[in-house]
Design a protein that fits this description.
Blueprint: H1 2-17, H2 37-51, H3 68-78
Helix pairs in contact: 1-2, 1-3
Length: 79
């Protein structure tokens, strides 16, 4: 499930960010992928709509949400 989940999240990242390069789980959202706060909001909304979940504010803390893998783990928690 995590592989399918990971692929769906990576696809949403690509759509939000607007590029098609390979995305690795350990890539940081801000530094490696260039996400700013507005892009992060857009990505989170897309994820919540796609997976029909609502991510709690505690899990959206930038200290907890640094990498693609962090994002996958948070989404998995709500499924």
């Amino acid at each position: 499930m995590i592989n399918h989940l990971g692929n769906r999240i990576k696809k949403l990242i690509i759509e939000t960010r607007g590029f098609s390069s390979e995305i690795h789980e350990n890539a940081t959202l801000k530094e490696d992928l260039g996400f700013d706060s507005l892009m992060m909001v857009s990505l989170i909304v897309s994820i919540e709509e796609t997976f029909r979940i609502e991510i709690g504010d505690d899990d959206l803390d930038p200290e907890k949400l640094k990498t693609v893998k962090d994002l996958m783990e948070i989404v998995k928690k709500y499924l």
